[in-house]
Design brief:
The structure holds two protein chains of two kinds.
Chain A lengths: L3 H8 L12 E7 L4 E10 L2 E10 L2 H14 L4 H5 L3 H7 L5 H7 L2 H15 L1
Antiparallel strand pairs in A: 1-2, 2-3
Helix pairs in contact in A: 1-2
Chain B lengths: L3 E2 L10 H7 L15 H21 L6 E4 L2 H15 L6 E5 L4 H12 L3 E5 L9 H7 L4 E5 L13 H10 L3 E5 L18 E5 L10 E5 L14 H4 L7 H10 L5 H17 L7 E3 L10 E6 L4 H10 L2 E2 L15 H5 L4 H4 L2 E5 L6 H21 L7
Parallel strand pairs in B: 1-11, 3-4, 3-5, 5-6, 6-7
Antiparallel strand pairs in B: 2-8, 7-8, 9-10, 10-12
The chains are: A alpha+beta, B alpha/beta.
Chain lengths: ~120, ~375
């Protein structure tokens, strides 16, 4: 049911962990539906210098969290704001239809982290 | 990689003796049991011998066993067949909130057809409250249907007491015994049962065959109409090889196998909840299916556990969310009082007679690695 890319990111998640002095944190999802995602970003010269995630959820939730850190790293904040759910799902060679709604939260998490950073300034 | 199968509540491998018994009925004795010639008579003989074996196992008469295509069909026939045949007496049915989907969805369908269904609550360990059950029976109640051994949390209901209540109140009593059959003694006489669903592929028999015990005199209408097969209760040419395999499979699980599975289950129950952080056992400690263990792990999700265990070659399952069909948490987990977020983190391990203690030790060790790894990823677990 999952693509090889999803399974790869699920088994070997990239940039997993917390950033203790993060400049912005995006928290999305809810425990009731089973997926919760925290995205931590470090910003330098308007670019995402570092990004990490922590996720409770299914393989799709973990894989989307993992891949968004790769998609966003090094991008300007404006570029990162333009990353969509579809970009995430395409980069993972697709997600099962039922997972699109519930588990594809990573783009929202990233955008919230950026908004959190911008709000603090 | 060595694979370890720990999902026997989903299905079991066909036992080698069962396969041996089935083989002559594929290409050699292939007759239709309804035919008059010798091919047909041979098939008919195999059919009736098999029926006799299964009837004996249930304490039933041979003419009270109706072969079907499996547990789902048997449950559909029991519920819809009895409901429609007795609708002049009443349209009220009682069941529980922890039934298999095929019972619940048959009930929902019956509700759409004008029947009234009461879904009884269960306690934390999954038992139906007998007093509540008794009080729920009305003048127009025609059928009580309660699952014998629960497929997710392993709870074994007190059929004897439920049967007593139903018989005193003159209400038909049906049980879905797919998970418990051959593992837990079942006697249709002692338990006052009018209808019992059993199937083959949960007991080391082939898929695609099951049976419904229908007590003589029970008012039921067929759901699949055909050429008068199965005492006019279920049309369709009997699947002889599968039926022969099903009958043979009733001999596979004896006292020795039950004790072996109980030992493996108890090792899991001793080794996981309490020993693992934020974990607990779902379902009861006593009156539990000998092969069922079900655990919840806080802050992590069941599907991730199942997939990571699969990477290690170990097959377990989650009744909870994020299956390919539904994102809803398991109705059984919710019924026993788990919060949705707790239900999402549940894993079911169901052992079989062919599993070894070494496999169980390896599974516990693997589960430890998997849950530790996922906990590290969870936003609700602080890094140490």
């Amino acid at each position: 049911m999952y693509s090889d890319k999803v399974i790869d990111h699920f088994n070997n998640p990239r940039n997993m962990g917390e950033i203790s002095d993060a400049d912005g944190i995006g928290k999305v999802g809810n425990k009731v539906c089973g997926d919760v995602m925290y995205i931590y970003i470090k910003v330098k010269d308007d670019r995402i210098a570092d990004i990490k995630f922590k996720t409770m959820g299914c393989a799709a939730a973990i894989a989307t969290s993992s891949i968004i850190t790769e998609l966003a790293k090094g991008k300007t904040l404006d570029e990162a704001m333009k990353i969509t759910k579809k970009d995430v799902s395409d980069s993972l060679e697709g997600l099962p239809p039922i997972k699109q709604h519930c588990s594809n939260l990573a783009a929202d998490g990233l955008h919230k982290a950026i908004e959190d950073y911008r709000g603090k300034r | 990689m060595k694979r370890i199968y720990l999902d026997h509540a989903a299905t079991t491998p066909v036992d080698l003796e069962v396969r041996k018994a089935m083989k002559p009925f594929l290409s050699d004795n292939f007759g239709n049991a309804s035919s008059l010639h010798s091919f047909g008579r041979d098939a008919k003989q195999a059919l009736e011998e098999s029926r006799g074996k299964i009837a004996e196992k249930l304490g039933a008469g041979p003419d009270e066993v109706v072969f079907t295509s499996g547990g789902t069909e048997s449950n559909n026939l029991a519920l819809k067949g009895v409901a429609f045949a007795n609708r002049k007496k009443g349209k009220h049915i009682i069941t529980s909130k922890i039934e298999h989907d095929c019972v619940l969805n048959s009930c929902k369908w019956l509700e759409n057809e004008g029947f009234e269904v009461e879904y009884l609550d269960v306690g934390r360990e999954g038992f139906v409250n007998l007093e509540v059950l008794g009080n729920s029976i009305r003048k127009d109640t025609v059928l009580v249907s309660i699952i014998h051994g629960n497929n997710e949390v392993g709870t074994i209901q007190n059929l004897k007491e439920i049967g007593k209540i139903c018989s005193e109140r003159d209400v038909y009593f049906h049980t879905d015994a797919c998970q418990s059959f051959t593992k837990v003694p079942l006697d249709v006489g002692k338990h006052n049962l009018d209808l019992v669903t059993i199937n083959s592929h949960k007991i080391y028999g082939p898929k695609g065959v099951g049976a419904l015990f229908v007590r003589k005199g029970t008012r039921i209408i067929p759901w699949q109409h055909g050429g008068g097969h199965e005492f006019n209760k279920r049309g369709g040419t009997e699947n002889i090889p599968a039926i022969v395999g099903f009958a043979k499979a009733t001999e596979v699980t004896g006292e020795k196998e039950i004790q072996h599975m109980t030992g493996l289950r108890d090792r899991l129950i001793a080794g996981i909840p309490g020993e693992f952080p934020d974990s607990w056992l779902n379902g009861p400690k006593e009156n539990r299916l000998c092969n069922n263990a079900n655990f919840s792990f806080r802050h992590i999700e069941g599907e991730s556990i199942v997939l990571r265990m699969d990477q290690k070659g170990i097959a377990v399952s989650t009744g909870s969310a994020c299956s390919s069909h539904s994102l809803e948490p398991s109705h059984v987990m919710i019924a026993i009082g788990l919060k949705p977020e707790e239900a999402h983190g549940s894993v079911r391990i169901t052992v079989g007679k062919e599993n070894t203690m070494e496999e169980i030790e390896f599974a516990i060790e693997s589960l430890r690695e998997v849950t530790d790894g996922l906990r590290k990823m969870s936003p609700f677990v602080k890094n140490v």
